[in-house]
Design brief:
The chain has 168 residues and is of the alpha+beta class. The protein has four helices and nine strands. The longest helix has 16 residues, at 75-90. It starts with a strand and ends in a 5-residue tail after the last helix.
Length: 168
């Protein structure tokens, strides 16, 4: 038997979802406008009083959803998720726009790449509604070009400071 599902609006509160399984057990969830979730568990779908209640934040709900989808039970997927979470904390992507006062104005792409500190890479350059991943070394940086860089936070920030105009 398929699980029965019902959703109703709770004016001023949010939404209420009800799930009834094949054993006629019911779980209700109230989703508040604030993001808070309340779970109610009933031994029987006809019961008026919950056997157990449980409150969750939005973040906790996402974690529970991941568990219910069995995503964290897959060791390979779990390792990938952990790596991505670590990377998100250590690696940043920044866009550096070339202004008329930029110290990079007129510099060649080759000069730009030679200025890069360890831990920073150029992903590409936006110009004239195009994104160029591997521009020619003699391409001159012009006003309106935007350089997309990626790397570890400290070297990226140091590179941006180096490239910022001294006339500010």
């Amino acid at each position: 038997m398929l699980m029965k599902f019902k959703m109703v609006d709770l004016p001023g509160v949010g939404k209420k979802l009800t799930f009834i399984n094949g054993k006629n057990q019911m779980m209700g969830m109230v989703i508040h406008h604030s993001g808070k979730r309340e779970l109610y568990f009933f031994e029987d779908a006809d019961d008026d009083e919950a056997v157990f209640t449980f409150d969750l934040s939005s973040e906790e709900t996402r974690h529970l959803g991941t568990q219910l989808l069995s995503a964290t039970l897959d060791p390979v997927m779990n390792e990938k998720i952990e790596r991505l979470q670590i990377l998100r904390k250590k690696v940043i992507v920044e866009w550096l726009e070339i202004s008329k006062r930029s110290s990079l104005l007129g510099a060649s792409y080759e000069t730009l790449t030679n200025m890069l500190p360890s831990g920073v890479s150029i992903v590409g350059i936006f110009h004239d509604d195009e994104f160029e991943v591997d521009p020619p070394n003699d391409m001159a940086m012009q006003q309106g070009h935007t350089i997309m860089i990626v790397g570890k936070r400290d070297p990226v920030e140091a590179f941006i400071d180096l490239c910022e105009s001294e006339d500010d």
